[in-house]
Amino acid sequence: MNTMGGYTLLRRISSNSDFSRLKNRPAEPGQQYQPTDVEHLANVISHGVWILPSVLALIFMVCVSVNGLQVTTTLVYGSALVLLFSTSTIFHILSYTGQFPLWRRTFHIGDRAVIYIFIASSYTPWLLLKEFHSWSEEFLCLVWGMALLGVSYAYLYHEKYKFLEIIFYLIIGVCPAICIMDMKDLSGLVELSIGGAMYIFGVVFFKMDGVIPFAHAIWHCFVFVGSFCHFVAICSHLLGVNLPGF
Predict the structure, then answer these.
(1) 36 DSSP β-pair partners
(2) Mean pLDDT of all residues in the chain?
(3) Residue 108 pLDDT more than 80?
(4) 103-128: string of b/e by CB count within 10 Å (b at 16+)?
(5) Residue 76 reports pLDDT greater than 90
(6) In angstroms, rounded to a whole number, what is the distance separating the alpha carbons of residues 201 and 63?
(7) The three-state (H, E, C) secondary structure of 30-71, written as one string
(8) Please, are residues 122 and 115 in contact by the beta-carbon 8 Å criterion?
(9) What is the dihedral of CA 57, 62, 139, 152, to 10 degrees?
(10) Taking the C-alpha atoms of 143, 156, 195 and 232 in order, what is their torsion angle to the nearest 10 degrees?
(11) d(CA 178, CA 197)
(12) Where are the transmembrane segments (predicted)?
C-alpha cells in the first residue's frame, strides 16, 4: 500500500469510528488545525508532565560532568530539552484557552522553531565529546547553521508549505547522522539509532491531525521516548554514568 493509499484508509477508518467525535476535520491549506477540547488537554498533558523531569535531567547531567566541555555540552542539550517541553506546553495551553492571540501565535512559531534547535542540540554532545576520524567540527557548524535556517523558515513561512517543513525536519535530523557513523568509538550508536527512529516514526502522527484522534499527543509521546533514549546514551557513553537498569 502506498503512502497516499494508507493515509486515505486511515481517514476512512477514523471518520467511520466512534472516535471521530474526539477530533475535528483536517485543517485547510495554510490554516492551523483546531483540536477538540480533549485533544487540547492531551496535548498539554503529554508534554507538560515532562517539564520537571527535563529540568531534573539538566541538573543531573551538569552535576555529573567532570570538565568544562562536558558542562557546556550538557547545558546545551539539557536547556534545549527543557525549552522543547515548556514551549510546547505553553503554546498548547494558550491554544486551549483561546486567549492572547498574539502570544499564541508567538509560541506557535516558537513551538515549531525549537524543534530545529533541539535537533542540533541533540547532536552537539556527540560532535564535541566523541573522537572522530574527521569532519566533526565542520558538521557541528553545519547542523547549527541548518537549525538557524530552520528557525528563520518557521518565522517567515509560519503555517505555509507544511510538507516542506516536514522535509526540513527530516533533513536536519537524518543528514548529520552520517558524521556520527565516523566516530572512532561507536558506543552509544544503538541508543542514538533507537531515539532517532522514535522521532522519525513520530513524524507520521505529527501530520495526522484530523485524521486520527490525539495524533499530536501521540507525536508528543514519541518525542519523549526519543529524547529519553538520547539522555540515557549521553549519560552512559559520554558522561560515564551508569544509570540503574540501563
Answers:
(1) none
(2) 85
(3) yes
(4) ebeebbbbbbbbbbbbbbbbbbbbbb
(5) yes
(6) 33
(7) CCCCCCCHHHHHHHHHHHHCCHHHHHHHHHHHHHHCCCHHHH
(8) no
(9) 60
(10) 70
(11) 15
(12) 49-69, 75-97, 135-156, 163-183, 189-206, 218-239
Could you tell me the CA-to-CA distances from 13 to 41, 158, 218 in Å, in that order?
A: 23, 30, 18
What is the distance between the alpha carbons of residues 44 and 49, in angstroms, rounded to a whole number?
Answer: 8
How far is 202 from 219, CA to CA, in rounded Å?
5
Contacts of 50 (CB under 8 A, 6+ apart): 85, 224
With helix as H, strand as E and coil as C, how does the chain read? CCHHHHHHHHHHHHHCCHHHHHCCCCCCCCCCCCCCHHHHHHHHHHHHCCHHHHHHHHHHHHHHCCCHHHHHHHHHHHHHHHHHHHHHHHHHHHHHHCCCHHHHHHHHHHHHHHHHHHHHHHHHHHHHHCCECCCHHHHHHHHHHHHHHHHHHHHHCCCCCHHHHHHHHHHHHHCCHHHHCCECCCCCHHHHHHHHHHHHHHHHHHCCCCCCCCHHHHHHHHHHHHHHHHHHHHHHHCCCCCCCCC
Separation of alpha carbons 148 and 246, rounded Å = 34
Between the alpha carbon of residue 203 and those of residues 103, 104, 121, 165, the distances in Å are 26, 23, 19, 11
Distance CA 11, CA 209 (A): 10
- Please compute Rg for the chain using Cα positions: 19
* All three cell numbers of 181: 557513523
